[in-house]
Every structure is written in structure tokens, then in C-alpha cells.
Amino acid sequence: MDSKYSEITPEILALTDLCLKNSSIDAELYSKYKVNRGLRDVNGNGVLTGLTEISEIQSFQMNGEDKVPCEGRLFYRGVDIEDIVDGFIKEKRFGFEEVTYLLIFGKLPTDQQLADFSSLLAKYRTLPTSFVRDIIMKAPSSDMMNTLARSVLTLHAYDTKANDISIPNVLRQGLLLTAVFPLLSVYGYQAYKHYFAGDSLFIHTPRPELSTAENILYMLRPDCRYTELEARILDVALVLHAEHGGGNNSTFTTHVVSSSGTDTYSVVAASLGSLKGPKHGGANIKVVQMFDDLKKNVSDWTSEEQVSGYLRDLLNKKAFDKAGLIYGMGHAVYSLSDPRANIFKRFVQRLSEEKGRMEEFRLYSLVEKLAAEVIAEERKIYKGVSANIDFYSGFVYSMLDLPLELYTPIFAIARISGWSAHRIEELVNAGKIIRPAYKSVAPRKEYVAIKDR
Ligand SMILES: CC(C)(COP(=O)(O)OP(=O)(O)OC[C@H]1O[C@@H](n2cnc3c(N)ncnc32)[C@H](O)[C@@H]1OP(=O)(O)O)[C@@H](O)C(=O)NCCC(=O)NCCS
């Protein structure tokens, strides 16, 4: 590998010093000019930047004049996520396609509409001729999110209406990407395993009669086999990750980039870049790595004292990545609970039983209980802290034998439906480029001729 793609030379270090010296802004100026850092107000609430009908997150209730924290609730197009999940599980259907229809078209599909929509996705679930050989197999990356983004950008070249942002065309592109994301992710992973680890290469063609969740497992496993429970739990994971309001980092990216009038492929590549971050979709990997570290450092997994001690070490930057965080706990919006984590937990217990991993399940439950107490003692918590969706998702994926490299792409496979709905909502309603303000706090200087500097 060419050293300029990895080596930090003394020249770069010297330039870094200069960069740092002239890039640091006095922290007090942010309060002086009342900057809403992170687009949040002083209480941590998001600044209102848009309206949406696609989903709603509830974490507070009004008690007279007072805003009081409540159990979290999530509504897709006004329908409670708990009822959606209960509904398709009771009726023994896979839910992701139904939820994608709901998010994009704004209503629950009838039997016939769902069948037609699933057939449309199946028809779109194919890549251009030789795309796997010419694009995915060439120069594979160890990061599947980058592979995914690269593939998305390259698909632009295969689309004769790539830059057309009329609604029918953007809808077609959104559905196409929703259909092919599982292929791009899984094949990207297979190429990586083949070229980086020397594993045998499997490229299984998806089957039109299978749901998105089933196809992921079908394409990933060398023998294409999976249990019904595995497919249903992965489907629930996709449903719970499909959408989370307009303000989450990657969906807001969708709005920002769409508002410039650019094409769908550029918008989705930008949103993928956002989702990859460990403060956003990348957190599920951190949770699993944190638990691996805990298992190595705590000898008795049932001891509240030992587990609390480790959690306190995490907060005091003495354990794991020394970031002072207990991953999978807390949320910018939810207070007493994240409904997605609660729904997930019910299925996790059944899967742990099937997989013989109840000891770990009990450890997760213990950490969930103790972490909330320890964080409340060690940090200033106004609104309550509870497990978020990432707390259990990594554990579920490990029980499904999904490789760590695919944890965040699974999130992307789900969230493309929310992004597609928001891109259409932005194009239909906005027409104004998103352009917030930045105040310059630099003093003016004279231009000095180069010989006099
Ligand atoms: C998601 C997260 C960034 C939200 O932070 P937030 O918006 O500041 O949330 P709160 O207002 O409830 O936090 C209050 C305080 O508790 C701290 N806190 C909250 N969750 C915490 C956690 N899991 N570990 C350590 N400290 C935490 C916050 O950093 C904040 O401290 P500060 O006042 O010193 O800045 C935060 O909970 C976190 O970092 N969690 C771990 C990472 C994670 O799981 N991310 C996935 C989210 S879906």
C-alpha cells in the first residue's frame, strides 16, 4: 500500500499544529452568541427545523404547564410502533415491506397492495449485469458502510435518469435502492471475507418469494439456511430501525442534501456517511465490543457489585475505550424508555433460549438495570436514562451469527425506507435550500504581500 494512504509524516504533524492553533474557538463564545450547538437548545431539545408527517417520537407529556418525562412511544404515520409489530406478528407476516409502504405512501397497505408492492421490490432486487464482478469485487474495503456508499454512487452511472428529481423518478430510485441494499451489503461482505480472510466466495442470488429479512440470511449463509425465529427477529429489527423522525443525523442529512436539488444517489451516499458514525448507527458495534470487554474483566456475571464496579469504571474512563460512556444507554430524545428497546427485548429472550445464551441475556438485563442507576448517580440526568435500541441489537445480531461488519449496514438496509420517505417529503414541500447561519468570530486582517510575511 502506498505510504501516503496511512503514514503521518513529521511535515503533516507540523501542519497539524498550525491547523489546531488556528481552528480552536473559545468555548465561551458559543454561549455569548447563544449558538444552538448540535442544533439543540439549552435544555438539550432539538431546535425546530422542519415539519413531518412520517413519524413522531414521544418522550414527554404535558401536566398542566409542566413537561414531564414519560415512557417513550414511536408512531409511524401516526400508528403506534407497538401496534404495528403486534399486528404483523399476530398475523404471521413479515413486517418490513409493510412498514416501508406505510412510511412512503402514508397508509397501511391492503392485502393486494402489499402483495403488489412486495413483487415490485422483488423485481427491483437485482443489480446491473456484471455489477458484482466489475464494482463490488474490485478493490473491496474492510468497511461495509464505505463499500455500500461507493456502490450507491456507482449505480448513478447505470441509471439513465440519474439526475431527474421529479417525484416518480425519485420514488423509483428510492424503491430500487431499498430493494438492492441487502445485495450491496451482503455481497460487499462476501468479497471482503474472500479477499481479506481467504474464505470461500458465496454469491447467492436473492429469491423473489422471500422477504427482505429472509433474503439477507439466505444470501449471507453459505448453505442459505435459517430458522423461522431468526428471520422474524431480523425482520422486527428492520422494522424498528426503519424510521426515527426528521432530526436524526442521517435523516437530517437526507433533508439537507436533498434541499440542494441534487440526485438521489448523492443524497443516499451522504446519509450513509452520517449513519456510519459511532454516535449514530455505528453505536451497535460499540455495545458488543463493550460487553466483550466486560465479560473478560468481570469474573462473576451475576454479581451486582462486580458489574456495577465495571460500569463505574466505564463512566470514569478507566475501562474499555475510556470514552466515559456506557454504550447502548441513554438517548437524546427518549427519557424513561425507548419503545424500540422494549419491543426488541421480548424477542431477545426467546432467541437467547433457542441459542442457549440465557447466561448472557441475564447479564444484559443486569447491566440494563445497574447502568441506569450508575449513570444517574455519576451524571446530571434531568430526563431519565434507559436502554436504547442499540443496547440489544448487537446481541441479537451476534446470536443470528451476523458478522460485526454488517451491523451498521443492517441499520442502513432498514433506514433507506425512512430516508426515501423524507426525501420525497422534502422535495414535495420545501423548495428552499437548507442554509443555517454561522457567525464569524475571526478578527479582520490586512492582506500581506508574500515577501513581507
Ligand atoms: C445518546 C447520547 C449521546 C444522548 O446524550 P444526551 O443527549 O446528552 O442525553 P442526556 O441529556 O440524557 O444526558 C445527560 C448527561 O448524562 C450523560 N450520559 C447520558 N447517557 C450516558 C451514557 N450512556 N454513558 C455515559 N454518560 C451518559 C450525558 O453525556 C450527559 O452528560 P453531560 O451533562 O456531562 O453532557 C448519550 O446517552 C450517549 O452517549 N449514549 C451512549 C452511546 C449510545 O448508545 N448511542 C446510541 C444512541 S441511539
From TrEMBL:
Recorded metabolic or biological pathway in which this protein acts: Carbohydrate metabolism; tricarboxylic acid cycle
The reaction(s) this protein catalyses: oxaloacetate + acetyl-CoA + H2O = citrate + CoA + H(+)
One of the record's GO molecular function terms: citrate synthase activity
GO cellular component, one term: cytosol
InterPro entries: Citrate_synth-like_lrg_a-sub (IPR016142), Citrate_synth-like_sm_a-sub (IPR016143), Citrate_synthase (IPR002020), Citrate_synthase_bac-typ (IPR024176), Citrate_synthase_sf (IPR036969)
Top-level lineage group: Bacteria
Keyword Zinc-finger carried by entry: no
UniProt-listed Pfam families: Citrate_synt
Any one biological process term the GO annotation gives: carbohydrate metabolic process
PANTHER family: CITRATE SYNTHASE, CITRATE SYNTHASE, PEROXISOMAL
Record-stated family: Belongs to the citrate synthase family.
Protein name (Swiss-Prot/TrEMBL): Citrate synthase
Biological source species: Sinanaerobacter chloroacetimidivorans
Lineage: Bacteria, Bacillati, Bacillota, Clostridia, Peptostreptococcales
